[in-house]
Design goal:
The structure holds 2 protein chains of 2 kinds. Chain A is mostly beta strands. Chain A has 2 domains: 9-109, 2-Layer Sandwich (Glycoprotein, Type 4 Pilin), CATH 3.30.700.30; 121-188, Beta Barrel (OB fold (Dihydrolipoamide Acetyltransferase, E2P)), CATH 2.40.50.100. Helix content of chain A is 0%, strand content 56%. In chain A, strands 6-5-4-3-11-10-9-8-7 form a 9-stranded antiparallel sheet, with no helix packed on it. Chain B is of the alpha+beta class. Chain B has 17 helices and 23 strands. In chain B, the strands form 6 sheets. An 8-stranded antiparallel sheet of chain B has the order 13-12-9-10-11-14-21-19. Chain B has a 5-stranded parallel sheet with strand order 3-2-1-4-5. In chain B, helix 5 packs across helix 6 and helix 7 (141-151) crosses helix 8. The chains are: A mainly beta, B alpha+beta. The interface between A and B is large, with 74 and 72 residues.
């Protein structure tokens, strides 16, 4: 979900007679589940924005780090960016979008989707903390929503629940273990 | 008056107290664990003393270390805040033994009232209505089951030393009792160092309304009006307001008078809160007394015009209360949102971590009591309360409108917070009509949510691309300029990635490299 670093502008600023250096940035942007083709064309010190083939005049200011102000058709938008261990997010008013930015010309940047075996579900630690109890043994039957482990963080104990009905295939954390956000705690089959 | 006060706490409440100290011309001494060296309360205090490792039992809950810091500092008094040692009678006694004034009630009043089980018994004797339940702590799930069978399910398990929803579990039937008892006990032990559990008959969808009292050490006790605290998740308060939309003058006077009797029965001095459950017929039952400053004290401050921390300090310094009951007047309306580091999209799991971006609201009718700042890392060892956002106005509608406006301005990036939850609550018709009870929030959260405006997604897409361009330009410029760091996440950004817009519609986005005050010459 990480933003691919686009190629540095100087790598692709072809000289066009009479226009000075021109850079065209082409991105594939995914906002939640929808993917857009976005072209940003630099010309004489400015940028032109084309979203899915449609020209949109945009006036933008980076107001401060991670805060972008856009004026589009006289409407004002303030977009805030968050880069977290779990991905890139953009907030606009009360909406928060998961965002992914790819440079289609860069093969390595395409994120591999899926990867989780059919039928196998991982129980992921949602935050850093400590495993205080393991509620089920390996090979135990488990219901959808049943607690498998208890993780404590910020003085609260939280059950990590099974995302499906099935069998606990593996427990990967012991009582007392410190875990980080994203660690796999158990696998349910 | 004291010359120096040690604040035995952290986070927003430590900041709140040291602000009061500064206003009263008193020097403040902070204490901090290893996880909190850079915390807001340390940065803002006049003095600061390390008290050990991150683990609270080895620092903020460690009485000898805190008293040692107090002696080193020469503080004449200790303010315990809320949580940690604030309701620990042993600590209050240890302060007295060390000839340091504990800003709160006497150790004996704390013992009388602080133990929920003892307080229940005492109030019952004094003729104050309490809920049916166990008069004493329950040593085992079996004894809990016996009491529960007698009074009938559902029952509420509670920590005798408790507060803040910790060690509390609603039990619907006998089969759930065993595991709920163990969870409640272990949570209580961790949170308060005391695993005593008792139980009470659970009232279905009651309102949780509490009364602020304040008593000086000369025996004068006043009530300062109620707070509506029914909006809870997992028995933890989320939003509080004063006055309660469900309390009229008559009910307020009756609850207030009972609250004053509770405080007097317990021999109470300083600021405290009497909690009541109110049933659907507006009968109210004594739940417990919190022998400390409450998290939600600001809403009372706003509507009474009184500063409760100033009053606490003055009372501890033997001053008499500066007003009588008839001088207490409620004006306007105030609502507090508890901003927690937790993820509303993921079952409200705690979300500690680095605050990468912080935009705080301000303007008319807004008060923000915060303990965080941008680039600070919220530690995982402590309570997830980050800040309290209070909106107030001449009436409830104006308070709600201001709060909604402020929530729109508020942004905490890098970690998850429950800010979006408050937008939802404030927009809900039942909340706006004041129809809330302790089950309301869970019901609201069970309802389907409307999706955010899809038209905005394309704006987000444009922004995502522009951010990416800015990243590349920032790193390109940073690499190209002598002495510049390659870190474009912070200083590099400000220095070289300045983007200026002009209103030329044909060109759209304009970029001027290195313009403005933050140019390469730095």
């Amino acid at each position: 979900m990480e933003a691919a670093h686009p190629v540095i502008p100087s790598d692709r600023e072809p000289e066009i007679a009479g226009h000075g250096p021109i850079a065209s940035m082409l991105y594939e942007v995914t906002i939640d589940d929808q993917t857009y083709q976005l072209e940003l064309v630099r010309s004489e010190g400015g940028w032109r924005c084309r979203l899915d083939g449609k020209d949109i005049p945009v006036d933008g200011v980076l107001a401060r780090r991670d805060v972008l102000s856009l004026l589009i058709d006289r409407k004002a938008y303030e977009i805030k960016r968050e880069r977290t261990p779990t991905g890139l997010y953009l907030s606009l008013g009360s909406a928060r979008y998961a965002a992914e930015v790819r440079d289609p010309r860069s093969l390595g940047s395409r994120k591999l989707r899926g990867g989780e075996d059919e039928g196998l579900k991982k129980l992921i630690a949602p935050m850093p903390g400590k495993v205080v109890r393991v509620l089920l043994r390996e090979n135990a039957a488990v219901e959808l929503g049943q607690g498998v482990l208890v993780v404590e963080a910020m003085k609260m104990q939280n059950e990590v629940q099974s995302p499906k009905k099935g069998v606990v295939q593996k427990i990967l954390a012991d009582v007392g273990a410190a875990v980080n956000a994203g660690d796999v705690l158990a696998i349910v089959e | 008056m004291f010359k120096k006060i040690l604040i035995a706490n952290r986070g927003e409440i430590a900041v709140r107290i040291l602000r009061a100290c500064r206003e009263l011309g008193i020097r403040s001494a902070a204490v901090y664990s290893e996880a909190d060296r850079a915390a807001s309360h340390v940065l803002n205090a006049d003095e600061a003393y390390p008290i050990g490792p991150a683990l609270a039992t080895e620092s903020y809950l460690n009485i000898p270390k805190i008293l040692h810091a107090a002696k080193l500092s020469g503080a004449e008094a200790i303010h315990p805040g809320y949580g940690f040692l604030s309701e620990n009678a042993q600590f209050a006694q240890a302060c007295a033994d060390a000839r340091i004034k504990f800003i709160g009630p006497s150790p004996s009043a704390m013992e009388n009232l602080g133990s929920k089980t003892r307080a229940r018994g005492q109030m019952e004797k004094a003729g104050i209505a309490v809920l049916p339940g166990s008069a004493r702590g329950l040593p085992s799930p079996n004894e809990a089951a016996a009491v529960a069978a007698k009074i009938g399910y559902p029952v509420m398990l509670k920590a005798a030393a408790g507060g803040g929803g910790k060690g509390m579990r609603l039990v619907q039937d006998a089969r759930q009792l065993g595991s709920a008892f163990e969870t409640a006990q272990s949570e209580a032990l961790r949170a308060f160092g005391d695993g005593e559990i008792y139980l009470e008959k659970a009232i279905l969808n009651p309102r949780h309304i509490e009364m602020q009292v304040v008593a000086d050490e000369q025996g004068n006790t006043l009530y300062l009006g109620e707070r509506e605290c029914s909006l809870q998740r997992r028995h933890q308060k989320v939003l509080e307001e004063a006055p309660s939309p469900q309390v009229d003058d008559d009910l307020r006077r009756r609850m207030g008078e009972v609250a004053v009797r509770v405080a007097q029965t317990g021999g109470y001095a300083n600021a405290g809160t009497v909690e009541f459950l109110v049933d659907q017929d507006r009968n109210f039952y004594f739940l417990e007394m919190n022998t400390r400053l409450q998290v939600e004290h600001p809403v009372t401050e706003v509507v009474t015009g009184l500063d409760l921390v100033h009053l606490q300090i003055r009372i501890a310094a033997q001053e008499k209360l500066p007003l009588r009951q008839e001088d207490v007047r409620l004006r306007g309306h105030a609502i507090e949102c508890r901003i927690y580091a937790e993820d509303p999209e993921n079952n409200y799991f705690p979300s500690p971590g680095k605050v990468t971006l912080l935009v705080e609201p301000s303007g008319p009718g807004i008060r923000l009591d915060s303990g965080i700042y941008e680039d600070w890392t919220v530690p995982s060892e402590y309570d997830p309360l980050l800040a309290k956002l209070i909106g107030y106005g001449s009436d409830r509608g104006q308070a709600v409108a201001r709060l909604e406006r402020a929530l729109g301005e508020y942004f905490v990036g890098g970690i998850k917070t429950n800010i979006s939850l408050f937008r939802r609550i404030l927009a809900a018709a039942d909340f706006r009509a004041g129809r809330v009870d302790t089950g309301y929030l869970e019901r609201l959260l069970g309802e389907a949510r409307s999706n955010p405006d899809p038209g905005q997604a394309s704006i987000a897409a444009i922004a995502a691309g522009l951010f990416a361009v800015l990243d590349s330009r920032a790193s390109a410029s940073a690499n190209g300029s002598a002495g510049a760091t390659a870190d474009h996440s912070s200083s590099g950004w400000k220095r070289v990635a300045r983007f200026e817009g002009v209103s030329r519609t044909d060109l759209g986005l304009m970029a001027r490299r290195g313009s403005g005050p933050s140019s390469h010459s730095q």
